[in-house]
Design brief:
The chain is of the alpha/beta class. It has helices at residues 43-50, 84-88, 93-108, 111-124, 127-139, 154-167, 184-196, 208-214, 233-267, 274-290, 351-358, 393-398, 414-420, 437-449, 467-479, 491-497, 517-549, 552-556, 562-590, 596-624; strands spanning 3-14, 17-28, 32-36, 58-63, 69-72, 172-176, 200-204, 217-222, 225-229, 313-322, 325-334, 340-345, 366-371, 377-380, 403-405, 411-413, 455-459, 483-487, 500-506, 509-513. It folds into 3 domains: 3-91 and 139-235, P-loop containing nucleotide triphosphate hydrolases (Rossmann fold, 3-Layer(aba) Sandwich), CATH 3.40.50; 313-515, P-loop containing nucleotide triphosphate hydrolases (Rossmann fold, 3-Layer(aba) Sandwich), CATH 3.40.50; 521-624, no CATH class. Helix 17 (517-549) packs across helix 20 and helix 19 runs antiparallel to helix 20.
Amino acid sequence: MISFLQVENLRKSFGDLVLFEGITFGIDKDQKVALIAKNGTGKTSLLNIIAGKDTQDEGKITFRRDLKIGFLEQNPVFNPNNSIIDEVFHASEDVKIAILEYNTAIEKNDKDLLSASMEKMDHLQAWDYEVKVKQILTKLKIAKYDQQISTLSGGEKKRVALASVLIEEPDLLLLDEPTNHLDLDMIEWLENYLKNTRSTLLMVTHDRYFLDRVCNEIIEMDNSQIYTYKGNYTYFINKREERIAIEEALVEKAKNTLRKEEDWMRRMPKARSHKAKYRIDNYFQLKDVAGSGRQDEEVRISVQSSRMGKKIIEVKNLNKKFDKLTVLKDFSYNFTRGEKIGIVGDNGTGKSTFLNLITQNLQADSGNVDVGQTVVFGYYKQEGIIYKEDQRVIDIVQEIAEVVTLGNGRQMGVKEFLNFFLFPFDMHYTLVSKLSGGEKRRLYLVTVLMRKPNFLILDEPTNDLDIMTLAVLEEYLSTFDGCVLVVSHDRFFMDQVVDHLFVFRGNGEVKDFPGTYSHYREWLTKIEKDQKKELIQSSKKESLNLTTDNSSTDKAKTKLSFKEKKEYEQLETDIANLETEKENLESEISSGTLTNDELIEKSNRIGEIITLLDKKSDRWLELGEFI
């Protein structure tokens, strides 16, 4: 194996806080590795150090010579005065200008500019680069190359940063939460792209389906130790449980042995022999092992919700427009106790607007939202926690309450409650600005639940939360007896939590789908295939009818010969194989990993397959008339 990266005895601290120490691992060519750890243990800091954006206190990082590295930061920083094309295009200035002129000519249908720009593209041999760039930008829904960075939202900036890093085609890709701010179509495209890319990969992500399908190895950081798992996320979960069980058994065994050794130490005479000294050393080793048991490692969510009456929320004929953009059209729905609804749809179709209409933070153009008197909203917003620069963790929660009532009715002081959410006492007076992204999200979750909501609205709750916290949140929501309305691009989270979906299709249309997100995707894929098949068969049948109307031989024919039956069966197999090959080729073409020659070759093959499918489908339909 060719080594791309070696990390040896890495240590990083901030003052008295040690993030990690003694971290050692390596990554070889073609590996696709995920880094998993609890929030606050330094995942982002580790990636920043590897990428050269930060420095370690101790240790060594070694790269293979001439290795090209691409780094997607969790919160990318751009020059606000630059345009998208300035940030995304890594080619020469002449190539950049030629591609920009070419796309401008197409948009404006300027034939003179198109002719001139095509000549430049030919001269600079920029077509391969332009095809690759356009594929990636199109899939990430970035259309206006000359748009200024300062006008983009946080999510749009993240997509520009992702496009920039993918276009560069580095040898080693470092990705920090690549699925944040992507809609579900983009996530599924990125999933396929990274599976097929030649780049070696090290990434941090909370998206478990994404992780499961892309990565072939997992590195876990736990209690300043590194554990490596040669498999995907499902394999990791099983092996991690086995590892923890073994560790706990060893600690328990050490504790039992330690009791006997402590008794011996108390009775041992002062004149100790050499043999006794060995036993004393062994005693202290046992003591270390017995004291190494796992501390509380998971958030435990158990918060009382307010009583909910029979009337919850009744929505009637709701409409909302922004200028010419319709985000909701004649929407009506009556919410019932205990239902959990997921909201999916492309970015910009009105999902967050809908949440603000339901909570009456935004006024509808027409229609009515009637909220029951007992409804207490808990609104977890996408932008996260709002705080002042001088606020500390304890200040944030004490503004809400001094005492919290748990699900079992027991009351708990806010300091103890913070500890319950993995904010130990020594963190209570930490400035909120010093917390990691995941810790801020966890603190925000604390403030939402402290208000005892019975109607939870969660807008992208999975961003920046670690996998362990997400698992506990999923368990809590499954037993929550109020209502839950959740917008999320995390498919695993949606499958675990929701009963049905509001699918935002654009132009104000909302479909209520009875099932999880995975069920919806299966249904959508089947519908698309059926519609395509019906269209092809309808077209072929019309063509066949024209032929058979003029054929007296076919009219007289009543059944197939043995040879024709065999041909019919073979045609079914051939058509299915060709359809599969066509789908695979389309996936390769959209992956963005092909050279221009490969693109031409694959495109030509698709043309051949379409011709073959036409011929074989015609013959299959012709023979099918006599089955």
